[in-house]
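User:
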Amino acid sequence: MGYLIYLVILILVPLWAQGKVKSTYKKYSKVMNSNMVTGAQVARKILDDNGLFDVRIEEIKGVLSDHYDPRKKVVRLSSDNYHGYSAAAAAIAAHEVGHAIQDAESYAFLRFRHSLVPIAGLGDKMSFIFIIAGFILGQMNLVLIGVIFMSFAVLFQLVTLPVEFDASNRAMAQLVSSGIIRNNEERQTKKVLNAAALTYVAAALVALAELIRFAAMFFLSNDD
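Assistant: Predicted structure:
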């Protein structure tokens, strides 16, 4: 039963989250925002309203490839959201600007996540190598090193959750206060933002399940 639950988390949860994001985005990318402003215009207005005149906005290829680059102070929006007038474009643009505001305010969880990037990246690449090598060679010390590396990657995923939820909350507040969306559009915007958040929740669940599995294997092997 435990292994079945693990497989459900590992395979079905991410697939469900991705499907939810794609279907929600597809639906609301066809719904125009009442002010008929593009995602780029939404981003620029919110940035300017918060005094972030030095943060640039760039168009980037891909679908849902939108992100904020804190090193270069750039909000990058995928072509459909950069040029689009949809409710989805406005929501996603505002969410990415939410990260820019976090950066400007030195939001604690964002700073913590940035500090984890080097070791989390190393853990993501090296953990399985140590774990597999440890089990093959019968060296539990290697498995333990792998589990420790993996724990940093998992911590990164967990810290990402409050960062993303906070950015979405900031996005909603900015969209409402600036008048970009009206009362009847708040529900649509929340649906887009909530669907996007599911991908981070799913990623965190998968990472945590993997860590628990290998940690349990390590302790059981030691007991034997």
